[in-house]
Specification:
The protein is an alpha/beta fold and about 450 residues long. It is built from 13 helices and 16 strands. The longest helix is centred in the last third of the chain and has 18 residues. The relative contact order is 0.14.
Length: about 450
C-alpha cells in the first residue's frame, strides 16, 4: 500500500515538514530509503537558509546527543512531595504511575517497557526542583512530567529543554508558557488561565455580584490568573473593588484582608495554595468569611484536606473551579489501587494523560528521544482517528494510522505552542462538611494565550 507520511525536521527550534509520496512506509518510521534521506537533507538545507544564521537559543549538544533514543523510554516525575502544593502531589503521582502501568501492560513503547523515575519538585522557596532535574537528566530521562507549580516550572524549563528533553506539565496554567522560547519541548495538559479566568469571572458575575475583591499570591500563577479573572469580570460589567497581591510565606494576612474588607465587595476570589487556609481564617476573624461574603476558589486551593480545621459548615456554598473532566468512578478506583490513601483526584487525569501522550509520541516516532517526542506529541493529540486508551491508540499506530488521543482530562488537542486548544472546566461547591462536590462544568475552545 502506498502511504503518505510526515517526517518532522527540527532546525532553529522549529519543525519543518516534508511529505514523501510513493514511498512505502509504516510506523515506526525508519529512514532507510536514499530518496527519503536525500529529501530530508534538502529540507534541512532549506530550513537553515531561511534566516541565514543559526538560532542562538538552540542547543547544539542537545540536538546531537539526544536526537536518537536508546530504545527505552524513561519518564521522570517532577511533582510536589513537599512544599506549598504537596497536597496536590498524591493524585498527580498516582496518575503517572497508573499510566506507566497500563502502557507496560499493553506492551510498552517500541516493544520495550517504560521506566519511571520519581522526583520531588518542592516549591520556589527551595532548590529541590533544580536538584531533581539534574539527577534525572544524569539518569537519561527522555521526558519529565511536571512541575505542578508554574513558578517552579519557570525555574527549570531552560535546563530541561536545553538538554533535549520533553517537559509536559499536568498543572501549569500561567499564560507565560504559551510564548516561552522552549525549543518546541514544552507542553501541558491543563489549559492556560485565559480559560479558567474567563470561566471564573463569568461565574462570579453570573451569580449576580457586581463588585469583587481579589486576593492572589505573588507568583506567575497567582498574578496571571488574577489578571484573567479581572478581565472577564469587568467585561461582564463588574467592578474590581480591591486587588491584593500577597506574599504566600507571610506570617500574617491581616493587612490584605483588612483592605479587601474595606472595599466592601459583594464577592471575594482567593487565588492561592496551601496558605489559603490561613487567609480564610483571617477573613473569618475580620467578618468577611465565606458565611458572610461569597467566596470563590481556584485549582490551586480547591481541596478537601486544607480546611478541616475551619469551623464546621463555614465553607458551605463556597464555589471553585478546577480544569479537567470529572474523574470517572472506574478511573478513581484504579487510582485508589495505586494509592489507597487518596482523598482528592485533582490533576490526576492531567498527569495520566501527560504520560500517555509522551508514550504515544515516542511510539509514533519509533524513537524514544526527547526531540522525537517533541516532534510528535502534538500530532498524536489531534486531527487523527479517535482513541481513548493507550492500548487502543497503540493498535492504530501499529496499523500506520494517525491518531487523536482523547484522554481522562478531556479532548486535549494540543496547539502549535503545546497548549490544549479545547478543555473542560469543572465547577465545584462546598457542602456543610467543608468538602466539595462537582456541581457543573463548562467545555469550550481555549482562548489563545500566545496572542496576548
Amino acid at each position: 500500500m502506498i502511504a503518505r507520511k510526515v517526517i518532522s525536521i527540527r532546525c532553529d527550534g522549529r519543525t519543518g515538514k516534508l511529505r514523501t509520496k510513493g514511498v512505502q512506509m509504516s510506523r515506526p518510521i525508519i529512514l532507510r530509503s536514499l530518496v527519503v534521506v536525500g529529501a530530508a537533507s534538502l529540507a534541512l538545507a532549506g530550513c537553515s537558509s531561511d534566516s541565514g544564521s543559526s538560532d542562538s537559543s538552540a542547543s547544539p549538544s542537545a540536538e546531537s546527543s539526544a536526537a536518537q533514543g536508546d530504545g527505552t523510554l524513561k519518564i521522570g516525575t517532577l511533582l510536589p512531595q513537599t512544599g506549598s502544593l504537596a497536597f496536590l502531589g498524591p493524585p498527580e503521582f498516582a496518575g503517572v504511575d497508573l499510566a506507566v502501568e497500563e502502557i507496560n501492560a499493553a506492551g510498552g513503547v517500541n516493544d520495550a517497557q517504560v521506566e519511571s523515575i520519581v522526583g520531588d519538585s518542592g516549591d520556589t522557596s527551595t532548590n529541590i526542583a533544580s536538584q531533581t532535574v539534574d539527577r534525572q537528566l544524569s539518569q537519561g530521562v527522555d521526558a519529565i512530567i511536571g512541575a505542578a507549580s508554574s513558578a517552579v516550572s519557570l525555574t527549570v524549563i531552560d535546563k530541561i529543554t536545553s538538554a533535549g528533553v520533553q517537559q509536559v506539565s499536568p498543572a501549569n496554567t500561567s499564560p507565560e508558557f504559551s510564548t516561552y522560547p522552549d525549543k518546541g519541548l514544552y507542553a501541558r495538559t491543563a489549559p492556560p488561565d485565559t480559560f479558567q479566568g474567563q470561566v471564573l469571572g463569568d461565574l462570579v458575575a453570573g451569580d449576580g455580584n457586581t463588585t469583587m475583591a481579589i486576593l492572589a499570591l505573588d507568583d506567575a500563577y497567582g498574578t496571571g490568573l488574577a489578571d484573567n479573572v479581572e478581565k472577564a469580570f469587568t467585561a461582564a460589567g463588574g467592578t474590581i473593588a480591591s486587588k491584593q497581591i500577597y506574599d504566600p510565606k507571610a506570617t500574617s494576612f491581616e493587612a490584605e484582608v483588612s483592605e479587601a474588607k474595606a472595599s466592601n465587595p459583594e464577592a471575594v476570589v482567593l487565588i492561592g495554595f496551601d496558605e489559603s487556609s490561613k487567609v480564610i481564617q483571617e477573613m473569618i476573624k475580620q467578618g468577611i468569611g465565606p458565611n458572610k461574603v461569597p467566596l470563590y476558589l481556584v485549582d490551586g486551593n480547591l481541596s478537601n484536606t486544607l480546611y478541616t480545621d475551619l469551623p464546621k459548615g463555614i465553607m458551605e456554598g463556597t464555589q471553585g473551579t478546577l480544569p479537567g473532566a470529572e474523574a470517572s468512578k472506574e478511573f478513581q478506583d484504579k487510582l485508589l489501587e495505586i494509592n489507597p490513601k487518596l482523598e482528592d483526584f485533582s490533576y490526576a487525569p492531567e498527569a495520566y494523560d501527560a504520560a500517555i501522550l509522551v508514550a504515544l509520541a515516542a511510539q509514533a516516532a519509533g524513537n524514544d528521544s526527547g526531540l522525537a517526542i517533541g516532534d510528535n506529541i502534538k500530532q498524536v493529540s489531534a486531527e487523527g482517528e479517535k482513541c481513548t486508551t493507550y492500548e487502543q491508540c497503540l493498535g492504530l499506530l501499529k496499523d500506520g494510522k494517525d491518531i487523536d488521543y482523547d484522554g481522562q482530562s478531556g479532548p486535549i488537542d494540543l496547539n502549535d505552542v503545546g497548549d490544549p486548544s479545547k478543555a473542560i472546566m469543572g465547577l465545584y461547591t462546598y457542602g456543610a462538611d467543608n468538602t466539595y462536590t462537582r456541581t457543573g462544568s463548562q467545555e469550550g475552545d481555549v482562548p489563545d494565550a500566545s496572542q496576548g
